[in-house]
Amino acid sequence: MHTRRNRCGIFAATACALAIVLATGRPAITVEAQQVPQRIVSLAPSVTEMLFVMGAGPRVVAVSSFDHFPAEVDLLPRVGALVDPDLEKILSLRPDLVITYGSQNDLAAKLAKANVPTFRYRHGSLGDVTTTLRELGRRLGMASTAESVAAGIEQDLDRIRTRVKSEARPKTLLVIAREPRSLRAINVSGGYGFLHDLLELAGGANVFGDVKRESILVSTETILVRAPDVILELHYTDAPSHTLVDQERAAWSLLSAVPAVKRGRVELLFGEELVLPGPRVVVTAAAFARALHPALMPR
Amino acid sequence: MLRADNVTYVHGAHGRGGIAGDANDVLPGVQRVSLAVERGAVVGLLGPNGSGKTTLLRVLAGMLAPSEGRVTLDGAGIGTLARRALARRIAVVPQETHLAFDYSVREVALMGRYPHLGPFELEGPRDLVIARDALAATGTVDLEHRSFATLSGGEKQRVVIASALAQQADILLLDEPTASLDLGYQLEISTLVARLNRERGLTVVVATHDLNFAAGLCRSLVLLRGGRVLVAGPTAGTLNAAAIRALYDVEASVWFDERAGRVAVVPIEKVRHA
Amino acid sequence: MPDVRRRLVGWTVLLGSVALAAAVGAPLIGSTRINLARAFDTALPYADNVDAQIFFIARLPRVLAAALVGASLAAAGVVFQALLRNPLATPFTLGVSAGAALGAILAISLKLQLTLWGVSAVTGASLAGSLGAVAIVYALARARHRGFSTNVLLLAGVTLNSFFSALILFVQYIADPAETVQTLRWLMGDLGVAGYGPILAALPLTLAAFVAFAWLPRAMNLLSLGADAAASRGVNVVRTQQVAFFSASLVTGAAVSLGGPIGFIGIIVPHLVRLMVGADHRIVLPAAALLGAAFLIVCDVLARLVMAPVELPVGIITAIIGGPFFLWLLVRQR
Q1: pLDDT tens by residue, B71-90
Q2: Domain extents for chain A?
Q3: If you ran DSSP here, which 8-state letter would residue C95 be given?
Q4: In this predicted model, what pLDDT tens digit does every residue of A275-298 receive, in sequence order?
Q5: What was the ipTM of the complex prediction?
Q6: What pLDDT, in 10s, does the model give residues A68-119?
Q7: Are strands A97-101 and A40-42 parallel, antiparallel or unpaired?
Q8: Domains identified in chain C, total number
């Protein structure tokens, strides 16, 4: 009973589906909505956190070698990381979604050959955290949960932003890395990237904000010239003893003409979440704000 | 005045700290060799490859310490002499000289003055005069400002001899001095060394496998085979067909050439063993 | 009148002036303009004097470190080339810098925190690594010969270089990618010492090596004739080779621990110097040290200026200058 009208209808429906596929630009395999991933392998710790915060934790079957949060990941098998992903191990777990870094082209190609869907993760600005969350939610068929988590993060960040809005913005040096106990190899955040965005949000003015790079090596001379009022130094381990923290901070006493050093405003922050553009950026933002405006945000 | 008494040297055993160079590993040794070199003599160490000539020369020079026997210079064991003191008595001209860097002829000649200078002493005018004299003696003084690397084979060898002369040693040891030189240069070196012996009373010991060269230059010969002395004595008496047969397994024609004024050797054929 | 003394004095004065000019001028140059009068104004409290701190902490230590490292690597280059009788030898040929690199990268990747006598963990580990490499190479060179063979030395050094390089790659592979930036930066060379501690730490070894260097030049000239020729002129060949090896290796280890493996100085400067002054090591060695110091000071100024406020690793500058220079040398030799 294929009347002419039915035939037109079927043709139109197919054409629409095709148009949707072409418009979204995704390989056909990801449009099939009934394929909600149940066995997820994540190579990116920040995305792992996103999965767990959305409630998709039980679906995660393996994580990277550098995953430490939440505690549940300690029980999961490890499949390598950015430099050394273990393809065999990944495939042996029969995943239906593998989260890779955007730069892992080789791995993605191999997974595509094995017909394993991938989610290519790229991090950039602070806004990318919630964007990725929402995308992930759609992919996992948990769009509404993802939306509420993302909205929650945005609200928390907004709250911090509002709180410090009326305060003066101290010129801040955001130190990402440095040779321990000395002022060599000082790596700071330039005017690009989620750390820079967090700094600005928390009411600081990045003293190297004019250099549009995510991380730059700077000399002590340029630090002296730019004269930051606050130095925020990030360390990605748990806080060591007070003595060690003081010893580490003391390295800056060499540059006593820097306002931050003169006024004792060298703040050392500890925690592995500092380097992760994931759901815990709120924690980082609060830490930054507390360090920048101690009077305003008591512990 | 330079004597070797029953010296034995075997490679791979002990040495005087070992001079760097892996040529050591392929050189043969010498076994219980004795010889005496009188003042003003011109002695040739003759033998095929592997007979120990170069080794013996280096033992005589004090570069290698024998495991048995001793080498004495005017009665004193050369092992007891300080390096510099020994260098003031014995000079060595090696087979080939490859300069690692671009020295001038003058600089090479002046290097012979090392044994006469203190640790931080720079060469003085007297040293320069001596070096120039040495270059003049070998006919190379007009090459003084040339780069050593740009010289011909014969010129290089003469400059190296000049450098050895600058040491003002009374004994000159030469290791295969004509090995890489053509006929013309060979004659040059031969004439030069003979003249130095005649005019300066230089005592000369030459290690060579070139029979005619040795016959022309040396007044006495030491024939070596397998690290041992086969026969030694004045050239005319020692270098004969029988000796050559024993040394090289070669049947040769040996005669005294009137025109050349010396013994001449022409190989005929390899000896067939029954 | 032999002119060695005259030429030695002449070249030392000339290159010494160049080095001095560089050393005096370099702290005055930077990405910012500083007020010299204020920098030296003792009336101003030091803690407030930005100009003084830029001059005395940001710039002057770098210049001194550049002078020390440049002089050390250039002189070591000359000595290694004489020891190995090869003008292409560098201070890094025998594996010393690979050992230093391995030590430093282990310290960075393991995030070592200790300091000893004002020397950071990375510097100390790098020095230990270089000493280890020297010991291994020497032991290998001695094992086969009761004496000291430069051929075996070369082989041992090249082998150790390859082996340590492989180890370095392995450590980087298994280490936290966050440290990769730091290790890469160290490998490219960096003179931003920010303080005089590291310089003072490198000083004892460097001075000891230079004392030995004073004794070597004439013997190195004779060694260029060949080991036999040198020995027959009264040179203690084995002792010369040992002194040359140890002094050049140790000064290289100290230099690499201070500024990282800055390449090309150990080969450009000796070559340039030989082109200018001839082959006599009594002039080449001091001239190379002075020119090396000046050269690296200038390269460091460029490293600070080219992409200010970002500073380039100085090893990149020396490589950019060194590579084309080498090609030119090659073409010129035809």
Answers
A1: 999 888 888 889 999 999 99
A2: 35-122, 168-292
A3: S
A4: 899 999 999 999 999 999 988 766
A5: 0.86
A6: 889 999 999 999 888 889 999 999 999 999 999 988 999 999 999 999 999 9
A7: parallel
A8: 1
Of C53, C178, C311, the CB nearest to A219: C311
Give the start-end residues of each E strand in chain A.
40-42, 60-62, 97-101, 118-121, 171-177, 186-189, 205-206, 215-218, 230-235, 266-270
Inspect the interface and report whether the beta carbons of C309 and A222 lie closer than 8 Å. Answer: yes
Cβ pair B5, B72 in contact under 8 A: yes
Most C CBs within 10 A among B16, B19, B89, hence the mutation to make, goes to B19
Nearest to C234 among B22, B87, B122 (CB): B87
Closest CA–CA distance from residue C49 to any residue of chain A (Å): 6
C-alpha closest to that of A198 among A294, A275, A121: A275
Q: Are A163 and A283 in contact (CB under 8 A)?
A: no
DSSP one-letter code for C116: B
Measuring CA to CA, which residue among C60, C65, C137 is closest to residue C97?
Answer: C137
DSSP A58: G
Per-residue burial over C23-60, b if 16 or more Cβ lie within 10 Å, else e, is beebbeebbeebeeeebeeeeeeeeebbbbbbbbbbbb
- Non-local (6+) Cβ contacts of A288 within 8 A are A198, A199, A201, A202, A204, A232, A269
Whether residues A81 and C177 touch (CB distance < 8 A) is answered with: yes
Fold of A168-292: Rossmann fold (3.40.50)
Q: How many residues does chain A have?
A: 299
The secondary structure element, H or E, covering residue C171 is helix C150-174
Chains with ≥3 CB–CB distances under 8 Å to B: C
Measured distance CA(C192)–CA(A89) in Å, rounded: 44
Residues of B in contact with C228 (CB under 8 A): 19, 21, 58, 63, 92, 94
**Where residue B28 falls among pLDDT bands split at 50, 70, 90?**
low
Length of chain B in terms of residues written: 274
- Stretch among A128-137, B11-20, C121-130, C307-316 having the lowest mean pLDDT: B11-20
Domains A35-122 and A168-292 share a fold: yes
**Residue B198, both tokens:** 């005649």
CATH number at residue C302: 1.10.3470.10
C-alpha–C-alpha distance, residues C95 and C158, integer Å: 6
Which residues does A contribute to its contact with C (CB < 8 Å)? 66, 81-84, 177, 179-185, 187, 208, 211, 213, 215-222, 224-227, 236-237, 244, 254-257, 262, 275
CB B157 within 8 A of CB B189: yes
Distance CA C80, CA B133 (A): 34
- The whole domain housing C76 covers 4-332
The pTM of the whole model exceeds 0.95: no
Written out in words, the top-level CATH class of the domain with range A35-122 is alpha beta
Residues A176 and A153: their CA atoms lie apart, in Å, by 23
